[in-house]
């Protein structure tokens, strides 16, 4: 009271706090007393306070009567069964503390304390609170705060339940809707029966009613539900029921076990903080709190102390959960469920002793016509003649050769584009690469591309210097040139293996194979053959006679005929299996390429493959994968773009910004490389994974897609195929003409300040078919619009062989002799460029407009 008087406004939460109760409890009581209340901030008028206090008083006076009876009963029992009695008293005591705890959010400590001191001090505790209770009831005073109120409230709260549980609770419940009462009551009976005995049945009536009560009152008190659950185990009986009913301590019906007319309190205090929890991934604050048996508010408080502001629905990452649990003294076992439908992302950890050496898988790359195919054929045919005579060579996308009783698997599709396309699809098939360089031609643009693709994949490289049979072969020149790309031969102090070969003359092949084995030995390629197979689809097609046929590289485990599997979004059962020599196999171990039949559909090259226990499961997983893929295709782009770069950096996902640079001349490429390498922002640095002179081609885009890189075009454009691939793969291409702009753009993106107010929108292309020189006017380009449209007021750039020659305004646009505002695809027109006359046939005029872009 005095508090109320001393303060102008008493809020619900303040009042609740002074009673060591929760706002919810007070709100429930206010509502029950038909006192209007909105939330914990509602002001409690004097009248409301008095009503609540009367309410408590009423309960207490009833409690006094009941506890008299209870004590009598306990005393009676004490003489007969001292041990049990003590336990009961402890539980009565604990019940109060329990409720207190739920109000004060201090469950763990007090819970433990109580439990520890439970038996010996139980009775005292109860008496003490009994005394307080009575005092409280007698004086009718509101708690005054400090420790006294706490005890009082402990008493009052504690007593409330006991009383009401027996009679008043039932009575007040009586006014509650019958239905829920019955429903809950029914459930209570069930629980009562479980705890057994005629006594239970005796308590059914009360149980029903108070069960209903609990339900209703429980609405506001989810938190207390937790408490009651513990009371439950100890079989709190009718008293508990009433308790929940009166105090608004919302327990579920099954929190209470009816014990009959003369209820006994027998509860054991349980520290509800679990010793250990199992975490299966990220959770919200609410979920974590539940798992830890804590109030969400308690968890939120703890999070604030740990420096994180969080709401109940906020997701917590694994680290935070671990930290939080640690702070509560709870051990955590992390069990991330294997998402079987995303099996390609799950790494299987095998015991070291289960691993055996497997053949290395090799890809051959190099410049056009340097002899990749000839080398592959030479290795295969030499080997077939040497060891596998009699077999009919089958083209199954890969083949195996044997040298010194050791196998090597070669992928049959040479070239870095195919390799990186696979990689872009997430397939890591190759262990090492052979870069073929013709000794008479030296390092060429695609040699460099191949090297960069191999490096981007982090693969060891062996250089095969081919065509050494040619008179103008100069292997040393090749070695010299390759030092520029950090491929330094061993004899020059480097660590790259160079082997001179002639694919045509079949010279040096054994050396090459031995070197491959050497690299394999150093890298220790291993797999566990004794488990279900996993691998990658190398090729697949629909065969008229055999249906869907897939060529697979088994990478781990052993594939057997009859195995059910998932390949990409398809599934099937291995009907027949042949190897590259055309032999039928019953099983295929790691690094073995095989062709299988038995698929329902045709998977894609690069699709992951995995065996499952049965076809039904395989089908379910394939279907789920198909759905997920559809969804992710609809979803947003996951590749990095300059626009979302900062977010990636902030999320800690990126340490390197992978960049591919294409420029018009070597000088500008080098200058750009130098400048970009110097940028470092917040620990993220630019990593140039490939750079060369020339238009941006498809291979660049595929490499960017596989390496999550952005492509910078300096005075160059993407060719059509590259543009289309970039669109479909969502690769970010940035085109510039000024080095400073590139640096600024990247730097700003890294700092999160990128503010693309304008974005270029290419509206069309025109091909120059004729050129007319007209005095006074200048050069008129007679054009055909090949895509989109050209507008008079658009800006234009002139492109010759993929290189930007000029950028400026369109001076005039004419259809025949008339000025035109715009000319659409398929029509001819005459274009003059403002300030540029050196237009040539076959040049391309690209028209674009600058548009504002919302960020
Ligand atoms: N003299 C000589 N010619 C070779 C050698 N290896 C390959 N060639 C020839 O070089 C040409 C190109 O060989 P390919 O094997 O088709 O070259 P590639 O690298 O596979 O070419 P693409 O598939 O077009 O990229 C063919 O005419 C081969 O006969 C060699 O060791 N010596």
From TrEMBL:
Residues 264-274 have a biased composition (Basic and acidic residues). The keyword Chaperone does not apply. One of its GO terms (molecular function) is translation initiation factor activity. It comes from the Bacteria. Residues 357-524 form the Tr-type G domain. Its main location: cytoplasm. Residues 64-76, 82-112, 149-166 have a biased composition (Polar residues). Residues 360-508 are annotated as: G-domain. GTP binds at residues 366-373, 412-416, 466-469. It is found in: Cytoplasm. Keywords: Cytoplasm, GTP-binding, Initiation factor, Nucleotide-binding, Protein biosynthesis. Residues 195-210, 235-251 have a biased composition (Gly residues). Residues 129-142 have a biased composition (Low complexity). PROSITE patterns: G_TR_2 (PS51722), IF2 (PS01176). Belongs to the TRAFAC class translation factor GTPase superfamily. Classic translation factor GTPase family. IF-2 subfamily. One of the essential components for the initiation of protein synthesis. Protects formylmethionyl-tRNA from spontaneous hydrolysis and promotes its binding to the 30S ribosomal subunits. Also involved in the hydrolysis of GTP during the formation of the 70S ribosomal complex. HAMAP family: IF_2_B. This is Translation initiation factor IF-2. It comes from Paenibacillus medicaginis. The gene is infB.
């Amino acid at each position: 009271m005095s508090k109320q008087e001393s303060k102008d406004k008493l809020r619900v939460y303040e009042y609740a706090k002074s009673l060591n109760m929760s706002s919810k409890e007070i709100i429930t009581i206010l509502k029950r007393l038909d006192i209007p209340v909105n939330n914990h901030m509602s002001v409690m008028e004097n009248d409301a306070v008095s009503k609540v206090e009367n309410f408590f008083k009423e309960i207490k006076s009833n409690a006094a009567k009941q506890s008299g009876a209870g004590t009598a009963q306990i005393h009676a029992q004490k003489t007969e069964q001292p041990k049990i009695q003590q336990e009961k008293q402890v539980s009565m005591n604990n019940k109060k503390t329990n409720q207190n705890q739920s109000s004060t959010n201090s469950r763990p400590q007090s819970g433990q304390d109580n439990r520890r001191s439970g038996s010996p001090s139980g009775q005292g505790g109860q008496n003490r609170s009994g005394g307080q209770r009575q005092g409280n009831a007698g004086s009718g005073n509101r708690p005054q705060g400090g420790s006294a109120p706490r005890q009082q409230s402990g008493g009052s709260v504690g007593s409330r339940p006991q009383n009401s549980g027996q009679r008043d609770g039932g009575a007040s419940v009586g006014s509650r809707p019958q239905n829920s009462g019955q429903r809950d009551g029914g459930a209570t009976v069930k629980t009562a029966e479980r705890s057994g005995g005629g006594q239970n049945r005796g308590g059914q009536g009360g149980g029903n009613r108070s069960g209903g009560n609990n339900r209703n009152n429980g609405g506001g008190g989810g938190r207390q539900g937790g408490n009651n659950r513990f009371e439950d185990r100890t079989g709190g009986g009718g008293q508990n029921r009433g308790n929940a009913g009166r105090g608004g301590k919302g327990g579920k019906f099954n929190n209470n076990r009816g014990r009959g007319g003369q209820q006994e309190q027998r509860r054991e205090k349980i520290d509800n903080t679990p010793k250990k929890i199992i975490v299966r991934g990220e959770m919200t604050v609410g979920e974590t709190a539940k798992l830890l048996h804590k109030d969400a508010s308690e968890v939120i408080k703890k999070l604030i102390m740990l420096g994180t502001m969080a709401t109940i629905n906020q997701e917590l990452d694994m680290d935070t959960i671990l930290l939080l649990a640690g702070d509560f003294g709870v051990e955590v076992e992390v069990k991330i469920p294997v998402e079987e439908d995303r099996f390609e992302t799950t790494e299987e950890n095998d015991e070291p002793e289960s691993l055996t050496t497997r053949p290395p898988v090799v890809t051959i790359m190099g410049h056009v016509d340097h002899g990749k195919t000839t080398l592959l054929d030479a290795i295969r045919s030499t080997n077939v003649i040497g060891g596998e005579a009699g077999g009919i060579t089958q083209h199954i996308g890969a083949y195996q050769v044997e040298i010194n009783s050791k196998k090597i698997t070669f992928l049959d599709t040479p070239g870095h584009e195919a390799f990186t396309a696979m990689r872009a699809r997430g397939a890591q098939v190759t262990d090492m690469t052979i870069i073929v360089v013709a000794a008479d031609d030296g390092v060429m643009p695609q040699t460099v591309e191949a090297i960069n693709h191999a490096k981007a994949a982090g693969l060891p490289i062996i250089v095969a210097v081919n065509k050494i049979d040619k008179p103008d072969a100069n292997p040393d020149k090749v070695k010299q040139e390759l030092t520029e790309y950090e491929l330094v031969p061993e004899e020059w102090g480097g660590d790259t293996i160079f082997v001179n070969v002639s694919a045509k003359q079949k010279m040096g092949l054994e050396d090459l194979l031995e070197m491959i084995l050497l690299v394999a030995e150093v890298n220790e390629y291993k797999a566990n053959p004794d488990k279900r197979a996993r691998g990658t689809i190398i090729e697949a097609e629909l065969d008229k006679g055999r249906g869907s046929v897939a060529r697979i590289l088994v990478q781990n485990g052993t594939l057997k005929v009859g195995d059910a599997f998932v390949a990409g979004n398809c599934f099937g059962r291995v009907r027949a299996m042949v190897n590259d020599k055309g032999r039928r196999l019953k099983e295929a171990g790691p690094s073995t390429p095989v062709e299988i039949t038995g698929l329902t559909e045709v998977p894609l090259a690069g699709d992951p493959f995995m065996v499952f226990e049965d076809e039904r499961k395989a089908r379910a997983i394939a279907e789920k994968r198909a759905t997920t893929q559809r969804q992710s295709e609809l979803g947003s782009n996951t590749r990095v773009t300059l626009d979302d770069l900062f977010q990636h950096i902030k999320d800690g996902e990126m340490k390197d910004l992978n960049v591919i640079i294409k420029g018009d001349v070597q000088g500008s490429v080098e200058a750009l490389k130098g400048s970009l390498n110097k940028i470092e922002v917040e620990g993220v640095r630019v990593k140039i994974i490939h750079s060369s002179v020339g238009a941006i081609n498809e291979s660049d885009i595929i490499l960017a897609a596989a390496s999550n890189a952005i492509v910078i075009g300096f005075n160059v454009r993407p060719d059509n195929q590259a543009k289309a691939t970039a669109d479909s793969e969502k690769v970010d291409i940035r085109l510039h003409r000024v080095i400073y702009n590139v640096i600024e753009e990247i730097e700003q993106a890294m700092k999160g300040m990128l503010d693309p107010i304008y974005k270029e929108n290419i509206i069309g292309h025109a091909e120059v078919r004729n050129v007319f020189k007209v005095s006074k006017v200048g050069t008129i380009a007679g054009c055909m619009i090949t895509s989109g449209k050209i507008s008079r007021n658009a800006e234009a750039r002139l492109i010759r062989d993929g290189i930007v020659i000029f950028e400026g305004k369109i001076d005039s646009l004419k259809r025949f002799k008339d000025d035109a505002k715009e000319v659409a695809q398929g029509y001819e027109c005459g274009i003059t460029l403002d300030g540029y006359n050196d237009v040539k046939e076959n040049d391309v005029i690209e028209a674009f407009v600058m548009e504002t872009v919302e960020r």
